[in-house]
Amino acid sequence: TDRHRLAQMDINFRSPMELARLSLPGMRARRRGRIINISSVGGMMAMPTMAVYSASKFALEGACEALWYEVRPWNIKVTLVEPGFINSDGFEKVRVTERGQQALDREADPYHPHYVAMTEFVGRFMPRVRATPDTVAATVHRVIEARNPALRVQATLDAFLFDLMRR
After folding, report:
1. pLDDT, tens only, 49-61
2. How far apart are the first and last CA of the chain?
3. Is 111 noted as a catalytic residue in this protein?
4. What is the pLDDT of residues 103-146, one digit of tens each?
5. pTM of the model
6. How far is 113 from 48, CA to CA, in rounded Å?
7. Which one of the listed residues 53, 69, 111, 115 is annotated catalytic?
């Protein structure tokens, strides 16, 4: 529904950008600051069943890239931390829309194969990766400590590999 799509955009794009907007006057006045946003491999490339999530992360990536150029004169650093797969139970808590659940439950649904394949892929892959919430947090900490952090910092091995493929 539109409510679900808008909520995804609010959480992953609009809220981080609003926080940056509210923080920028003080950063410009001090002539320094840091804006660090958490993006995703989903902001690098889209996958089946994740269109709105990817759209929200692509929007965050584009807006932060523009902001990176815009705020450089004030010594404000903008960084996107880009994690990929993380070994946690978070994927088990993903909210599936009513329409997505129907596609998952009904073999006759044209999207059923996509939902089944993605659910199985993520369920098999997530517990096998070495990245954890703690390793991603350590990446964020390194970005905070870095003198001149990059615009994009990959937080997991798969994110690094996807970034290489994207280039």
Report:
1. 889 999 999 999 9
2. 34
3. no
4. 889 999 999 999 888 888 888 888 888 999 999 999 999 999 99
5. 0.89
6. 10
7. 53
